[in-house]
Write a structure and sequence with these properties.
By secondary structure, the chain is of the alpha+beta class. It has helices at 18-31, 44-51, 55-67, 120-125, 157-160, 175-183; strands at residues 71-74, 78-81, 96-97, 103-104, 107-116, 134-143, 146-156, 189-197, 213-221, 227-235. It has two domains: 18-81, Winged helix-like DNA-binding domain superfamily/Winged helix DNA-binding domain (Arc Repressor Mutant, subunit A, Orthogonal Bundle), CATH 1.10.10; 86-239, Chorismate lyase-like (Chorismate lyase). Helix content is 22%, strand content 28%. α1 (18-31) packs across α3 and α2 (44-51) packs across α3 (55-67). The chain starts with 17 loop residues before the first helix and ends in a 12-residue tail after the last strand.
């Protein structure tokens, strides 16, 4: 393979360090699923030969990707693609105890999936053309048989069209690995915000429009930083508590 410095690039003519060009090339490969997530990426020596650059340049590029949260180094095993731990992100806000008083994490169950017409506000949040259709999921989070969270999720139809043809039973507890498996869409990061809202009558929670609910909005992005999921979750205020430790 030719060196990144010799390959035509939009960065040509700009004063961009070689390691940064290598980083961008490696990041593009991550976005294309060039490597199996269960296996280490090629060694520094192999990448050095392939890109025709020094090992120091490769090491600096890889370290940047580790710092960005896209790769993780495992001592004695190599460098792997990092999967963000979104499973526990809810625990920053949500504290639910079972009958024994133990903290429990709710289980996700998809109740409905369909292709829907564009929604101007949602298409805007996802950076989509106003005419682009959406995949809409209705999902609940359960503790035992009790619904403690109700979620509505919107996805770009061109990227997630395969989901619309699947029975809801195929969807697992965790959606992001499922997106990757079925649609080849890897969620790399997300931003969440919490607020309180009224005016939302929820059939899964059994709440009326005049009841106060906690509302969590999330925009999830792929490795390239493109929004690929917009999610709104509602829950009863008594199940939420914000906690932070300051040392």
């Amino acid at each position: 393979m030719s060196s990144p410095a010799a390959t035509p690039s939009p960065l040509d003519g700009l004063n961009v360090p070689l390691y940064e060009r290598v980083r961008l090339a490696l990041q593009a490969r991550l976005a294309r699923h060039a490597w199996d997530i269960s296996e280490p990426i090629p060694t520094e020596q192999a990448l050095s030969r392939e890109f025709e650059v020094s090992i120091g340049t490769i090491r600096k590029a890889v370290e940047r990707l580790v710092k960005d949260g896209l790769l993780v180094k495992v001592q004695g095993k190599g460098t792997f693609i990092k999967r963000p731990d979104f499973h526990n992100s809810l625990l920053r806000f949500f504290r639910y105890r079972d009958a024994a008083g133990e903290h429990v994490v709710p289980v996700g169950v998809v109740k409905h999936v369909e292709t829907v017409a564009p929604v101007e506000s949602i298409n805007s949040r996802l950076g989509l053309d106003p005419a682009t259709s959406l995949i809409h999921l209705q999902r609940v989070r359960l503790v035992g048989q009790e619904v403690v969270l109700s979620e509505r999720i919107w996805l770009p139809e061109p990227l997630f069209s395969k989901l619309a043809a699947l029975p809801v039973e195929r969807f697992g507890n965790l959606l992001y690995p499922f997106y990757d498996e079925i649609c080849g869409q890897f969620v790399s990061s997300a931003v969440e915000s919490l607020s309180f809202a009224t005016g939302h009558a929820d059939p899964y929670l059994g709440t009326q429009a005049d009841q106060l609910l906690v509302r969590i909005e999330r925009v999830a992005r792929n490795i390239e930083g493109t929004p690929i999921e917009y999610r709104v979750s509602h829950g009863l205020p008594q199940n939420f508590r914000y906690e932070v430790r300051i040392n």
